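Q: What residues go here?
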């Protein structure tokens, strides 16, 4: 579509550069010059027809791809939800092992940082799946 529009634009601009076009043949064989205004109006009508055709193609392709975009968005949310839950799986054993020093023990900072990571990524993972489920219902 884009290549055709570019080529049509080049042809129209090439024709507009010349001022008057060479002689055109009439029905009885005589040649008459084509005025610039006639060429400009012809170029305008060609441009309008090209614009209508390209808008129709864009609407058609958009209508065809709309369901795929919806499904793709749902799959994207589910995949990001899985990736958000991976740090939860990695850091949860650390939280479990350092749970006894949650207040003032030797691993106090390790426990707090691991717990914060687990809480944040658990929220992000669950909310991502929640949004995917909400989107799939509509």
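A:
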């Amino acid at each position: 579509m884009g290549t055709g529009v570019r080529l049509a634009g080049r042809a129209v601009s090439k024709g507009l550069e010349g001022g008057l076009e060479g002689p055109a043949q009439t029905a009885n064989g005589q040649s008459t010059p084509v005025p610039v205004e006639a060429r400009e109006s012809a170029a305008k009508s060609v441009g309008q027809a090209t614009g209508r055709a390209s808008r129709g193609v864009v609407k058609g392709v958009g209508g065809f791809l709309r369901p795929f975009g919806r499904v793709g968005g749902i799959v994207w949310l589910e995949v990001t939800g899985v990736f958000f839950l991976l740090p939860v799986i990695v850091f949860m054993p650390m939280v479990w092992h350092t749970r006894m020093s949650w207040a003032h023990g030797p691993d106090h900072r390790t426990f707090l940082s691991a717990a914060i990571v687990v809480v944040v990524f658990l929220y992000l993972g669950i909310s991502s799946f929640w949004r995917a489920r909400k989107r799939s219902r509509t």
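A: Context that may help when evaluating the design: Residues 2-137 form one domain. The chain is about 80% helix and 5% strand.
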